Amino acid sequence: MLTYDRDDMNTLPTPAVLLPWTPENLQTNYPVVEPLPSAAGDTVCLYTPWTLDPTWRAEQSAARRVLVIDPTWFDRYPVSDAVLAFIVAQGQLVIPQLEVHVGCVTDIDGISDTVATYTRAHQTNTDWPAQFDPAPKLFPAVDGYYKSFFAYWKAVEKTSREN
Fold this sequence. Notes:
Blueprint: E1 43-47, E2 64-69, H1 71-76, H2 81-94, E3 99-102, E4 116-120, E5 131-133, H3 149-162
Parallel strand pairs: 1-2, 1-4, 2-3, 4-5
């Protein structure tokens, strides 16, 4: 059996069994949604498909809650119809007033004229016109860069034993 370091994978030749490869033409089919009413004058909480936390900013009960499905991301990394349907259904289940916008966040009517716009930091929304709340950490005591998941997990186990 061949063994090699995971970090060397990018420099090794492609195994022969993987050479007969044909690219797939994958694409995301977006849900059809009604255009959102203007956000001007509102307080708005923006969600990504990866930040659908029903407890986030729950104290702001009057805020509009908008899930942004940005084609910039999903055209690059396509998902199935079932995945998008699950994201929307789950989001609306846990955040009952959740509105859905398919498109760039700057295309939301009135987004530049809100009272306040909030979002939770995620790598897919770094350019959104919003105040960013930090992403929660599953293990807040563990910080820094780890070369591998297992190095990170060892740090998690160590801090878990200390607490």
